[in-house]
Write a structure and sequence with these properties.
mainly alpha, Ferritin, 2 domains, 11 helices, 73% helix
Amino acid sequence: MAVKMTSDYVDLLNEAVARELQVSIQYMLQHTKMEKLIRKVIPENILLDKTTYEAVGKFLKEISIQEMKHAAAIMERIYYLGGQATTKSKKPVVGGSLSEFAKLGVEAEEEALILYRRIIDESRKVGDYESHELFEKIYGEEEGHLFKFQEYVKVRDESEGDSGETSEWRKIYTEDYFALLNKAVASEISAIVQYTNQHEKAALLSLRMKETPLEVITEKNKTKAISDLLKGIFMQEMEHLEKISERIYLLEGEATVNPEPLPKVGDTADDFLRLDHKAENDAIVLYRKIIEEAMKRGDTLTRRMFEDIVIQEEGHYWKFDDYLR
């Protein structure tokens, strides 16, 4: 083996994975929460087409995606080294205002820099120069995130104001309805982590092995084909998470940060397919239930949103189904 792996070293790399998963979800939910926070109260936001919240929200979405790419790259490295990448995230903390988002971001990024300095030092000691280079690159990007968050720490938050009595049309949005919508959020978080991990697990040597001349010539086997499929799907699941959580926040609910069910990775390409086929089936069943409930309540926008999402989830289901027949 190119690098002598120890359980302590794998645990250290997995700390980084858990941290990257945490902030990716945290920043995405903060981005979607901006939709609720946008107000036209302070003069700047009255006169400009784009508010301060929209500007920061764009930044949060961009770094959320970048953090998920970091998680994927670290997972891939763990699998190349023969380890097992975690599916467990540190708990995201969303907050309730722009300045709080910034303070939480500063805290998260400072923790990351401390951890990554340890990993950079340790990777050099064990001769893992590829990981050393990877974490030096990630370190630079995380430092950029930190500097940006520091710029926003003292930004003036807009007042919530007094919205008065709840409008009649909004009374359909009850706690049990938000609980149902949050099952969708939890499902999407689970799928994102599961599919990302499986996509990167294709780097494991036992899954990279070529057995036929065709596999050698094409530089591709079944696991690689499934891995390529998963890459496109988990990006769509990120979009679903964005839409659903944004809807919850806009309706003045709170989005969950916990995956449910817990992500399951499996050991082979066939395991990936069976697990993901079931995940898509369960999502479709849940989303049909949400559509039915939204229709009963007259929540047209939520119904239409989930109808669009179900179309994509059915597409995922049939893609996995093709390989299982």
